[in-house]
Amino acid sequence: MIKSIILAAGKGTRMKSETPKVLHTIFDKTLVGYVIEAVNKTGLVDENFVIVGHQAERVEEFINNNYDNAKTVLQSPQLGTGHAVSMVLPYLNDFEGEVIILCGDTPLITEQTLKEFIETHHDKKSDLTVMSAIFENPANYGRIIRNNDGSLNSIVEEKDANTEQKAIKEINAGIYCLNWAKIKPAFGQLKSNNAQGEYYLTDIIKWANEQKLKVNAHILKNNEEIFGINSKTHLAEASRMLNQRIIRNHLDNGVTIIDPLTTWISPETEIEADTVIYPSCYINGKNKIGKNCKIGPFAHIRGDVVLEDNVKIGNFVEVKKTTIKSHTNACHLTYLGDAEIGSNVNIGAGTITANYNPLTKVKSKTVIKDNVKIGSNSVLVAPLTIEEGANIGAVGVITKNIPAWALAITRAPLKILEGWVKKG
Ligand code: UD1
Ligand code: CA
Known about the structure:
17-stranded parallel sheet, 7-stranded mixed sheet, binds uridine-diphosphate-N-acetylglucosamine, binds calcium ion
């Protein structure tokens, strides 16, 4: 199995944040989490080494609590990307296999691209493969220098490049695959005599050529995938790119999305064909939405939501940790949390599941069985079960279980005092 090294020790100054750069999130998943998951999904890697430095404790804690096959390695001080990789040497002393190196701030990288990249490394029997990309505006990236015969010569950083080299549009994408045993000695020989005074990882290419090892570059098809995040603007751009990729996927699968520009759908949401998503919906977390559902406009689905077929979730409805069976409607101004709702249920406008008791800090469940009708403006105080077919009169404050087919009314009777208002 392959090992991965994920570089995440850098400072991320431009984020202007107290949160370490790689712990910023898109759809509540961290940037480094996206990278680790893409690597894991290839099925080719059994262990990830995450290089940490700035605010190391926070990144370490996150990685240790969330990813079983990831280990953090401290780099302090941070003397460059080559120095960062060399921190792993003690852990991979006897390792003979391949290592892939990536950055922790490129959340758009996909498992398919990584697989293809590793396959190319195998097919070409490479000792070292670099991922490159063609950028119309290559500023700030390392440039790929090729020999006259097209073979890879070296990488020159922007700050070290001459005018001719700066004009090169093929850049270093920052992802590498190496035969560890053969390339490992390079890390003891890197020098920092360059414009930035750093130990450059990119210098291993020149080194490998000098050792007559097989070096290749593999050109990335979709430049978006190596989009790196250095600022909040980049974070917003990456979020939108990821979202648009997800939306395109759903559209291809037959989901109707009226306005892709205002619809947000998390990567872990499954939606079946012929469901319609109206504008301005935010669907976050892990959800399963059946077919022929109607969602929105202006709906908020917060995760752990299962909607069977033909469910309607209308405007200003928030749903969290809730299962809803087929042909049930919650069309207006409603909060459904920690609930289990049957089929053919109608949830009136303004219904709230009061699932949280702020005094005891306990969350409780609301169970609503098939064919129940809840009148408008009702508060369902959990824990609570409303049995099959029961009706709740409008403005019900329901604090006890309601038996099947009963009518529950809690409001004060209407009083009409005729002539009570004095005409002016
Ligand atoms: C690097 C490459 C450049 C490539 C670009 C792609 C080098 C010398 N240059 O440049 O050719 O085009 O990535 O994005 O490698 N990091 C550490 N420890 C360090 C320094 C950096 O962990 O001591 C991490 C950073 O957190 C970051 C990654 O390595 O995740 C890349 O570092 P950065 O300084 O951004 O490299 P670039 O200058 O962008
Ligand atoms: Ca960078």
